[in-house]
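ingest -> validate -> predict -> emit
validate: passed (alphabet ok, no gaps, 326 aa)
predict: started
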Amino acid sequence: MALEKVSCDFCGSTNNIIVASQTDLLYKTTNELFHVVKCADCQLNFTNPRPDKDSIKNFYVQDYSFHNTRNYIKKLFDKIFDLIANSYFVLIFNPFSILNPYLIQRIKPKVSDPVLERIKIFKKIKKQKILDIGCGSGTNSHFFGAKGCLKYYKKFANVVGCELSETARSNLNKLNILCYPSIDKIPISENNFDIIRMNWSLEHVDKPSQYFKFIKEHLAKDGMAVICIPNNEGHVYQNYPDCLELPIHFYHFSIRDIFKYAEKYGLKIKKVKTFSYPGLYYFSSKFYPSLSHYKNMSIFDAWKMNRTLNKSNSENGNDLLIILGL
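emit:
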């Protein structure tokens, strides 16, 4: 493993202080300790030093879920558990603790997919042109699931992917979806995208500034860019500082950071929403000691927690959805 020390992507400063330290508790690829620093000038949080571009691939495990396709049996069970988990029927299963891992992680707040919403609005006017940066295998997407991926969007729109993983690109080729390995490989002729999405991928990139610049130059005049990321000022990350996905998360953004990037690159904020769901607490309890008290969460506990989280309208949700325009 080779580490590289980097300056702040937003302002270029080399002055920073360590705010958190953690090894890879989630995937257990290493015992190496990594540090998250805060820029002393603009307050951006980032992993520093970090694995260089040749080393980082070693920290994405072979079965990293969004780089691989799901088999038909798993898809079927996922659909069944999704239907149960997001209805009152979930309460019937409360005594059956064996089902906790399958149901709790699927209890989610009502957050609509802005990409699918726009596709439906414009379907009679114009077939949307979509670029999904960090699209994975194109068969599943974080939070939005099977109906929030390129394979599903392809039924209604013209889709293009951008994905570093060779495994994922191979899967996309089988789906006849054009996919580039990086944004700098996307030809100039591929522009005026109606939708550019980065679905929990911006925190993984080397230089976020390059992506905001790319969005500014490639988004259609009336288009939208959808950015979904962990919210570094969310409840989990503020109260449980060891709950970090290191080293594969290079950046740890707040709402303020995205506003500053948008202003710097001439982009307008159209929508901001934070949200949380109990599955993050339950899943993380297996790996992060500070969250271990959530291990015994029942389905009923998760259901109540989700109702409470849904009623909260603050900026402290653990995930952040922002829509940008020109």
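The chain has two domains: 3-59, 110-298+315-325.
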